[in-house]
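[job 0412] stage=fold_complex status=start
inputs:
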Amino acid sequence: MTPTIPWSPNSFTPADPAYFKVKLTTWAVAWGLVLLASLVPGVLLATGVKVAPWLAIIPAALVLVIALLVLRILRRQVQALGYLEREEDFVVRSGVMWRKQLVIPYGRMQYVEVNSGPVERRYGLCQLTLNTAGAGATAHVYGLPEAQGQALRERLVAAGEEKML
Amino acid sequence: MSQDEHWQRVHPASPFVRGWLAIVGLLYIYWQNTDELSLAERFAGDRLIWTVALAGAALLVVLVFYFLSWYFTRYKLTSSHVYVNSGTIFRSQKQARIDKVQGIDIAQPLLARLLGLAELRFDVADSSESLLRLAFLSKADAHALRQLILQRAAGQAASEQPATAVEAAGEAAPLMAKVPATRLLASLFLQLPVVIGTLACVAIVILWLSGVQGIIAAVLPILLSFGGWFYKQLNQGWNYTASASDTGMRISYGLADTRQHSIPAGRVQAISVTAPLLWRLLGWYKVEVNVLGTKSDDLDNLQVLPVGDFESVARIMGILLPDLGIGNQREVLSTAVSTGYEHGFTGSPSRARALSPGAWKHQGFLATGTTVISRYGWLARTASFVLHARVQGTEFRQGPWEQKRQLAGVRLYCAGGNIIGYLHQVDAQVAAEFTLAQAARQVER
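[job 0412] stage=fold_complex status=done
writing structure:
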């Protein structure tokens, strides 16, 4: 059968499973803050301020439901990440509901960045960004072990110089 | 040419063109502070002496600043570089290598135009930071200098690549398109945003007349921003002419400020031909390009034809994209800017009808030897032309609804603006195969 997606998901190098913990931490912090904000009417009600009762319940419940839905696909989102080094170009994939596969020729690369935030550093991970002259054509590789990220960057820079168009 | 190799000064009126607001501001302050006096009182008795003395002093200060600004602004043209020095206290020295000069625009702000002055803006290939500007020269000098630099640039490039030719001096350059004022105005009023805006204005005036007083204040910001957009469109299309040059094309336009742009064909990254809903009745199109560098002051795409018929589009495409990579280019172009599947265009399958009921029949693409032509859009239909060699990245995309219907899209990202190649809702298998084929095509050298 002919494939309906350019490159088979199995051929990609997946993100490190530890990246799920990074996503989980960010998820907890972000949704924790939103949940706190949605609890404000409830707290006001408890302290005696007159607030419509539905305002105390509905937003908090809604936030909780959405946060749990996001949590449900979080692991699959991490599993959907991956990169593929080919002879002449570099492919990244992402997305569960909205699937994307972006291919960038080494020769179009302008510069490569390796970044790591505090949470990522805690798990020994980093992320790599490959930039071109086109605004949309920016490849992100998430959840790379630090050593692997540095090695990948060096390979990409070398390939970029070699394949310069 | 040795006579150029010394420092020259810009036109003495330049500081005034830049700084006339200072004089207006001083006058305004004076008027504000003496507005309880009548004209006769202002210029009588003791007050006359003070007025004259103060005015003289203020004028002197302004003139000294103008003089210093003029004195310290100098330029020099050598066989290899253009140098521009400016600034009295904070000096700045900029230079550009002539062989890196890609194009020179001539800009005339309103006041400069009244005084017959012009500004040169250099588009330099390897400088991404601040643009090199030379302001102001007399219009004739500006054109002569531009010509001289372009000749030197071409001459130096010629030693490396003999194919480059000198850009003709605008003399007898074949005119490719011209936009009459009536057509421009008609085209502006035939766009849905303008139609809706105008209807909204009429509704507001009716409401206002029927006694709702607050409404004007409520919508004033909207009206102002709408007016700003409208003026920009008007300015960009006013007195618009496009002509062919040896390296590409030259356009000039402007209502208050006139601008001349040269667009080397080799720097065009992507082209889009758009037909808004109401224009389609008249067979009008708008052509925009992604181009590196020359836009300098805004991130929009560069308009190379504000409004024109198919003939003008075909002429411009012939200059900017001479090799469409397929035979009978004219027929292919005509299919590209309309609807139909001749010449090998692949469309959206009828499964896409539920997702874009208005556009699925128009959507389609064609990959030729050099170019990807893609059609998309519902109310405003766009045909975008992207050269394989200019694609920065290709992205296969599939959303949940597309997945269910075995559809997918592909985006081809380009530099220099926001025009992209966009295969919208084609068969998923076709899109996947296209992505693989495109990945192979875009690394060919």
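[job 0412] summary: Strands of chain A lie at 13-14, 82-85, 89-94, 99-105, 109-115, 125-132, 139-145.
[job 0412] exit 0
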